[in-house]
Amino acid sequence: MFLFGTAFHAYAAEYDRYLVKTTAGAWKRYFGVRHSFDNGFTTDLSDFQVRFAKIFGLEVEPVTKLYVLPDGNHENVVLEKEARPIRNNVKIQRATPLDQVPWGIEMVYDDHLLSKTSGGDGMNVAVVDTGILISHPDLTNRIKDCNNFSNPRVPVVDGKCEDKNGHGTHVAGIIAADGGSDGLGIFGIAPAANIYAYQVCSASGSCWADDVALAIRTAADNGVNIINLSLGSD
């Protein structure tokens, strides 16, 4: 049975993410582990492998998928972004905004004449999202950590958080954009805060809940003060 299961694993075309509720090392070696948790581990399984696990009495639960936009809208985002992809190694052409402090920030500060913001010194904020465009002039000095938890082959890629969607960069800008070294850019709510850019979502804006969970745990372990999750599901 185990040999047949292994052979089928190689040829199965469709896989989904599951939480296998066991901590037994034999099952971890057999299925492979993406993330380990107190009550089991997550991995990508075919339909056959799910049935195979249940034959041996294992409890297998699908991992929830989350989205940075309502389910059904994320595909449109991909089409738009494929036409003009965001890349971390592309030099941004500096554009001067008409208003350096967005209206929402003015509302929070209760000052419609605000020309720049301040604050956030020593505060660490994790943006668990689609990543961040680390070369963005209004954010490049704010990024303290950058990790990718969404890579399909490797559970965590240190030093990588490339945003191919744009949502995470937008969120990080609302939080901590500092106007850039030239002072000509956008200002966020706390421009002195440090950003921990944790990429958990794909270019389409879809995110596996176990990747999100590991990013949350990593943020907590790294002493982050605030964790921002601009995503959800049913």
User: Structural class, from secondary structure content?
Assistant: alpha/beta
Globally, the shape reads elongated
Radius of gyration: 21 Å
User: Into which percentage range does the β-strand content fall?
Assistant: 15-25%
In sequence order, what are the helices and strands, one letter per element? HEHEEHEEHHEEEHEEHE
Termini distance? 37 Å
Low-pLDDT stretches are 7-13, 75-86
User: What CATH first level of the largest domain would be assigned?
Assistant: Alpha Beta
Fraction of residues in H or I helices: 25-40%
Total beta-strand segments: 11
> Mean pLDDT, rounded to whole units?
88
**SS element count, helices:** 7
Largest sheet data: 5 strands, mixed
- CATH architecture type of the largest domain: 3-Layer(aba) Sandwich
CATH superfamily of the largest domain: Peptidase S8/S53 domain
Strand order of the largest sheet: 8-7-9-6-11
Count structural domains.
Answer: 2
CATH fold assignment of the largest domain: Rossmann fold
Polypeptide structure, described:
The protein is α/β, with parallel strands linked by helices and 234 residues long. It has 2 domains: 2-63, no CATH class; 67-228, Rossmann fold. Helices cover 28% and strands 20% of the residues. It has a 5-stranded mixed sheet with strand order 8-7-9-6-11, with helices on both faces. The longest helix has 13 residues, at 209-221.
